[in-house]
Amino acid sequence: MRKFIFHLIIFITIPCLFPQLSFSKTGWVSDMLLLTFRQGPGNSYSVIKTLKSNTLVSILEEQNGFYKVELQSKEIGWVDKKFIIFELPKTVIIDQLSQKNKTLENKILKLSSNTGTLKEKFLSQESEYSQATRSLEISLKTALDEQKKLSSSLSKAREKYNTLIKQSKNIQKIVEENKILQKENTTLSKELEILKTKNKDLFKTGMIKWFLSGVGVLLIGWIIGQSVSSRKRRSGSSLLD
User: Fold this and answer.
1) Distances (CA, A) of 197 to 113, 184, 191, 206, 208
2) 81 secondary structure, DSSP code
């Protein structure tokens, strides 16, 4: 409880001791021609100078219907609180809006100039793009023609490949048949040699047989001739007797 009371006392006394810290906010001089800027909080105090409308002030303290204010020039004085407003003055708003308008107009001018430049760039890029598109179309057409040629060449090569595979199979068959024929030819050659040898032997044997048969025929003829001549002689001698 004592701590609470102590903190409450401190909270109350600090604004009293340092009124400037507790009462500092920003205001503007209202829409009047001139406002007296005095040395103290009252009309009896001497005038330091006059403030124009819409002058920005920082309020430090309030006393007797006057505000103690600080100007942007760091000067400190007192003004009648009736002529201080806390809303942004219309003239300031208008000035700010006019400045924004000028800024926007400058931006519009820059954008319009940039738009012209961008339009020129766009037109140049469009022509470049059209040229690039044409060249790409030509390249694409050339590529498609080459693709067609390559496709036809590939189909022809496949046909040749298939034909060669068939021919290679036939060649393998021919080679195998040739090997078989070579084996058969070798066998037939051997058999022919054997037959030639046998034929020679048979020819020799036949010649001997023919020779012997001829000699036999001659001998038989000679014997028959001798027998016939002997009979003729006998018959001739018998007739003479």
Assistant:
1) 119, 20, 10, 14, 17
2) G
Q: What is the mean pLDDT of residues 132-137?
A: 83
b/e string for 160-195 if b means 16 or more Cβ within 10 A? eeeeeeeeeeeeeeeeeeeeeeeeeeeeeeeeeeee
Determine the distance from the C-alpha atom of residue 71 to the mean position of all C-alpha atoms in its chain, rounded to a whole number. Answer: 67
Q: How confident is the model over 60-92, as pLDDT tens digits?
A: 999 999 999 999 999 999 999 999 998 887 777
Asked if 61 contacts 23 with a C-beta cutoff of 8 angstroms, the reply is yes
Distance CA 58, CA 23 (A): 10
Q: What is the pLDDT of residues 92-106, one digit of tens each?
A: 788 888 889 889 888
65: left (phi over 0), alpha (psi -120 to 50) or beta: left
202 exposure class (CB count in 10 Å sphere: 0-12, 13-18, 19+): exposed
Structure tokens that stand for 37 in this block: 């800027």
Burial 17-35 (b: 16+ CB within 10 A, else e): eeeeeeeeeebbbbeeeeb
Between CA 168 and CA 181 the distance in angstroms is 19
Give the DSSP per-residue string, 11-64: HHHHHHH-HHHHS-EEEEE-SSSEEEEESSSSTTSPEEEEEETT-EEEEEEEET
pTM: 0.35
Q: Which residues pair with 61 in a beta bridge?
A: 68
